[in-house]
Amino acid sequence: MSQTKFLLDESEIPTHWYNVVADMPNPPTPPLGPDGKPIGPEALTAIFPMSLIEQEVSAERWIAIPEPVREVMRLYRPSPLFRAHRLEAALGTPAKIYYKYEGISPAGSHKVNTAIPQAYYNKLAGIKRLTTETGAGQWGSSIALAGQMFGLEVRVFMVKVSYEQKPFRRSMMQTWGAQVFASPSMETNTGRGILEKDPGNLGSLGIAISEAVEEAASRPDTNYTLGSVLNHVILHQTVIGLEAKKQFEKAGDYPDMIFAPCGGGSNFGGVAFPFLADKAAGKNVRLVAVEPTSCPTLTKGAYAYDFGDSAGFTPLMKMYTLGHDFMPPGIHAGGLRYHGDSPLVSQLYHEGLIEAVAVPQLATFEAGVTFARAEGIIPAPESNHAVAACIAEALRCKESGEAKTLFFNLSGHGHFDMASYDKYFSGQLEDFHYPEEAIKESLAHLPKVG
Hints:
Layout (H helix, E strand, L loop, with lengths): L4 E2 L9 E3 L31 H8 L4 E3 L2 H7 L7 E3 L1 H7 L4 E6 L10 H13 L4 E6 L3 H13 L2 E7 H6 L1 H9 L3 E5 L5 H9 L7 H13 L4 E3 L6 H7 L1 H13 L5 E5 L4 H15 L5 E7 L4 H4 L1 E6 L8 E6 L21 H8 L4 E5 L1 H15 L7 H18 L4 E6 L7 H8 L10 H8 L7
Parallel strand pairs: 5-15, 6-7, 6-9, 7-8, 10-11, 10-15, 11-14
Antiparallel strand pairs: 1-4, 2-3, 4-5, 12-13
Helix pairs in contact: 1-10, 2-4, 3-15, 4-5, 4-10, 5-7, 10-12, 11-12, 15-16
């Protein structure tokens, strides 16, 4: 029988993270302060420990993973690489399809890969309390778990539409000891101001970030944690791609194309960046970021300096953005409803080293159901974006007769997202292509710098 799972031993958990900055053709664009001038690391000390700030600005290719972090990671890593034989047969494609399954983590997604080191470094720095935002809840669940592992209090501002759609994600966070607030909330000046103007506001990741940053900056015992976008977050996620490269060696194969969902960029960067080093060395591998048509940051946004949050608390970062006051519709892939994208992912996309596609909501659920009926695993709505793009390419291979090797990151399971599947089966979900006029209106409010 053909091999289905490609497994690594715990001793093969990566000992170092891979920093893509070392292999980028051009240095990363610097963050700017409100005056439009580059800021130094000291500007971030109000909300991050120095150890994470050093990783944020590092150009070293390899950064050692502390042993206490690897020890906690042994609870679920290495994650398996699967050959999707049954999906290939169902599609009738000559393509070989592989997927790496990050849903085996205790929180059910890849987000734990950065939550653990972030909690560890904050603990070392003497911090007692962490704040964060979360969309669909994967990140909030992950940092709640990591806070419990290292004895830290965690407060999560959860985008209101997801807070209402996904009550069991909230229960997960509370099980691990976190406090969860629907954002915009009455806990911060930002939240109170927004609710005064718009009591029915459904929230956005930008608003939730503002609330979490505001609270962290106001207390010396509290730091902010972020589940995506920033360089150090993507750095921590490279354990996915590093393991996958070892697993492809065991399989005697190598991907022609790699697909991953892309909201803030940590999922995509985590799996794709280690392969980008091979691309730089001459390997012909295509790296495809997949986003929703309702929040088309890379495919429809502007490459410009913008705030990472709605209120303008964060430094200005050069990224593909739809505008920091962009209000996305309440799609069920809550983790992909961010107005911007990782500056590293954005720069590499701008320079033509990676690709991006946008897919509509109904197609993602159709793909997720097709995958689940063949492979058994029910993917998270975010993960369905990569599934959809990969299946579309496999069907193109069916038409052309090409036997490509396709690989996607199955970033989490959908066990806490079944309400969205219920709506799909009952015909209550709809596609939403964000209007060009609305995007132009939002982009008109970009800061006048850079």
